[in-house]
Amino acid sequence: MARKCSAAWRKTKTLLLLLLVSLSVSICVCKTSEEQMENMENTIVTEKKAEESHRQDSADLLIFILLLTLTILTIWLFKHRRFRFLHETGLAMIYGLIVGVILRYGIHVPRDVSNVTLSCQVNVSPATLLVNFSGKFYEYTLKGEISASEAKDVADNEMLRKVTFDPEVFFNILLPPIIFHAGYSLKRRHFFRNMGSILAYAFLGTVISCFVIGMLMYGCVVLMKQVSQLDGDFFFTDCLFFGAIVSATDPVTVLAIFNELQVDVDLYALLFGESVLNDAVAVVLSSSIVAYQPAGDNSHTFEVMALLKSFGMFLGVFSGSFALGVATGIVTALISFTFIHVFLDFQLLETALFFLMSWSTFLLAEACGFTGVVAVLFCGITQAHYTYNNLSPESQDRTKQLFELLDFLAENFIFSYMGLTLFTFQNHVFNPMFIVGAFVAVFLGRAANIYPLSFLLNLGRRNKIRSNFQHMMMFAGLRGAMTFALSIRDTATYARQMMFSTTLLIVFFTVWICGGGTTQMLSCQHIRVGVDADQDNSMSFSEGSERRSTKQESVWLFRIWYNFDHNYLKPILTHSGPPLTATLPPCCGPLAHFLTSPQAFENEGELKDDDSDLILSDRDLSLTYGDVTISTDALGGHTTAGAPGSTSEDLDRELTYGDHELVMRGTRLVLPMDDSEPTFSRPSP
Amino acid sequence: MARKCSAAWRKTKTLLLLLLVSLSVSICVCKTSEEQMENMENTIVTEKKAEESHRQDSADLLIFILLLTLTILTIWLFKHRRFRFLHETGLAMIYGLIVGVILRYGIHVPRDVSNVTLSCQVNVSPATLLVNFSGKFYEYTLKGEISASEAKDVADNEMLRKVTFDPEVFFNILLPPIIFHAGYSLKRRHFFRNMGSILAYAFLGTVISCFVIGMLMYGCVVLMKQVSQLDGDFFFTDCLFFGAIVSATDPVTVLAIFNELQVDVDLYALLFGESVLNDAVAVVLSSSIVAYQPAGDNSHTFEVMALLKSFGMFLGVFSGSFALGVATGIVTALISFTFIHVFLDFQLLETALFFLMSWSTFLLAEACGFTGVVAVLFCGITQAHYTYNNLSPESQDRTKQLFELLDFLAENFIFSYMGLTLFTFQNHVFNPMFIVGAFVAVFLGRAANIYPLSFLLNLGRRNKIRSNFQHMMMFAGLRGAMTFALSIRDTATYARQMMFSTTLLIVFFTVWICGGGTTQMLSCQHIRVGVDADQDNSMSFSEGSERRSTKQESVWLFRIWYNFDHNYLKPILTHSGPPLTATLPPCCGPLAHFLTSPQAFENEGELKDDDSDLILSDRDLSLTYGDVTISTDALGGHTTAGAPGSTSEDLDRELTYGDHELVMRGTRLVLPMDDSEPTFSRPSP
Q1: Looking at the DSSP assignment, which residues form a beta bridge with residue B136?
Q2: What does UniProt give as GO cellular component (chains A, B) (predicted)?
């Protein structure tokens, strides 16, 4: 024991040492660059300046990499000792804060006099600017508009400005892997079981929350105007925008603990599903609000036409992104379907293709004017549903690991940047009244989302969402990466700056306090932990009535979809599912033969339908297949698509067996169930 | 058979269809963006312009992603049908060329009138520019200097300029993973067996090649001046620079075929080792040549001091980068060594740490003014040697797969960009005389590297480098990613533009002609194929004298190093190798106890020393371990580090068994050897 302790102590010491070393390294790097910068002021050679700038950029990026490294090392210690009060994202923020303080106060920033302000009487601001400095032409690219007051600061704070990333980096580089991973790892079984509720929370709830927060903040702003606490414009659209960005929840901290403690799977599914979808809703909602532009000079009056236009834009962008994401997902499935023979030997190519197709979804959506993040989300869901089945087992592992790693790095990068930016951002506007108002509004907005909707949903659900679940969902409404990315995207006006500062505080508070208090809250609400998803399953299976009621709740929503998917889409897009010849009416025989892959016939005996992470046991496979064959035999060569007897049971079975726990952070592995269902005999094709 | 053919035909059709679709998609995207751009010209809103620019960027990137996707799909078909005449990189170039032609000639580029040229009588070109357009401040960042003649073109070719990446992208984003992967996958056994020759080719050979090419090109340039074929300045330093950049070989195409055909391992090791190291030499050499700046006005005269300074810079930068790379590699090894207990459960963290540490090596080197690429190379070698042993088997797979994927994507991106840039680059200078001269010079430079050095090396080697091997090495001197990245880095002057255009042609020629002709060349030179690395091994083992001679050739070079590494470094940095208590003299007992991990004692029975990709069979482990224990027992608790009897045999065995084929492109798996060496009994610790 003593030896173990001393080993742990040694590790802690090593860690502290590393922390000091890497901090001092980053500071040294900054200092050197500065000194070199001072020496440079005399030279006017452009190339050297560009080199210097590159060196500085490297140093800045190095700071973040070291931050991430430190975070990872500390997480190890935490995980090793089972600390649960602070999640890795919270930790990343703390390290970010420390480095931010050092950059802000610890380092003397010399005045860089080489900035020049030019005055031109032209009325346009071109994207590319050619400047003729005494006969030599230099090319400049537009970075953005800055306010006049800011203009004089630019020269002063070169260093702090350097460490500030282009906000678009978050949207175009860091968010996509996070969102894709979320979509890719959506737990299908529990997700579908609670789909109605999840959609209600995500769509209706987010809109409610957005408008409640918007109204409350408008009240707050009006009050502030009365007592002269407001130094700039703050319109109703700004309030609504604020409502939209803080309505995106990100309970990754909470879910990690849920996963570890094995909390009730339905609660998990509700929270995860809601947070994944409401990110998409919030991002489209906020862009629609920005697009609300009434005609005429005063762009902040109410106008029905503009509102309708905004609403139409919301629908258009959302459905466009959705369609695009699903379409590219299906294209990938088709490609992998076509090349499956070739696939088997070249997993590298397979993974690369998967990665590229996902990324091109994002780019295509952005290029078409849709929202890339939303497209990527639905692409991820589609890929998990179809393409995943066509990948070889090695590639399934590879792609999962790749996206897991990208997600992990991107998430921790964003959170440590959040910590850093609290001190390095130049234009913070901390208004105590606004901040208090925002906290109250966020709380009430969340309440207005969860409680009324849960009440309404419980009217329809037989498997009620209990009040302690509701409290937990209320409590788990953390704000995270998406909220931050949306708020930092535009910090040009006074209103936006105030929003950004307030949003930062909301994120800090929710991640540290709500995230840290999850374990306490769970025990306080008497939510049982240590529930094995499969135990839970078999239990509800034995309690026949409850099981059936759960089924009833969700089945009507997507029975048609399920039948269509299982009978037509899966056979066309994947090598699992029944052969089309069995599902299409006999008149379509030749077409069915053409579309069905030879493998589907070959594989008939060992049909795969593994939408889960785990490869299903043979028993499960034959079971799923059994249904189809029975109906095939009974109905003479084809299953009637609508036949409620077979497909509904089939669906029920898939909900129960067809899917397994998806392990989010790689700590738990759920084994396939072990209840004894009779195996159906395999017919000859 | 007929069915198989029709299936293949269907696949080909699908592929062609996909090609057409994706090309038309990318063109459509471009067209739409253009149209939108035209509509936009009336509006002057900056934000919308920025959005437009973002959309255009997405479309540009999408073109490349689709290119990569197409390449991957076609590679599949090629691999599937065992086409060997065209490598994936060659294919990527062809697709790039096609898209380049379309962009250049197929798309009407509207004149973008929104560019403004400002004239200022200031003598500096600041990195950040604030422009006051009628009261509003806009921030611009410096992109670079452009020539006056170019200035008028800027407006015309916005579209083509858009598709042109910042050259630094290649150096800072795409090259590092390629180089790291090369270092990480250096075949240790064959590399060390031929280390002397490899170092000679890489260092001496590259310098010889650089100067030979430089001289020849200077002659060519002088001749061109005589016949008035030269439209600008071209100094001797430019010629040397050209020599340096085209001296970096990249035989990835050839090696892929070698790997597939199982060509002689020594030839493989010579070519691979040389190409990995000469990249590093070429990049430092070229930057030293650029830094050659004699005092006074005329910066192109010969001056001893400047030459010495350049030479000193070469040594300084190279050794600095080397030291930095090795240092961070060792730090990573130490970290993974310290946290190995915690590691086991969290492979995600392990992979993430590994990735971040490798990247921070690059950034740290760049921030310190060293060459990041060189640092990353040696970091990769160090990591493969030490850190790899501390990773859990799952993490070993994960990291290898991750870097493999990054390498694959980066390489194909660079090659398809090469194809594209032949048509989209704005300032090509194709000078037939210079091009012919360059081809001759490159050929002669390579010859002056290989043949004289091989002759000299053969004087010392008993296992001669035969003449057919020399011809093959001569033939395999392809130019690739590094040459391209170095030449595109600076295309400001006339000389550099001519170099860039010529370099492109050299890369195309060598990759297509030399790469495509590898199989023919192999059979023409009667180089035996289908040699199993291990067969080869056991054969040479049975031919005792030859085996011993090979050993003699390399052993003197690094016997001391090997002993030091095996007895001290490995035990300190990894959990493999003998415990320090066994290797340090008895007086250092307490220190040895402190530094040795408890695991080293625990693991004593099953000592791992797997520097290879494959997990060694138990027999191998006990064999390697056997040596150490025998000497431990014989010499009473410690092995004398210099004892030639034990360590040299140990070394010999490690050279023979301790390492296995590293599979580069995942097509071949070499099994552990199967010759019957008696197993040593395992002693109790």
Answers
A1: B133
A2: plasma membrane; recycling endosome membrane
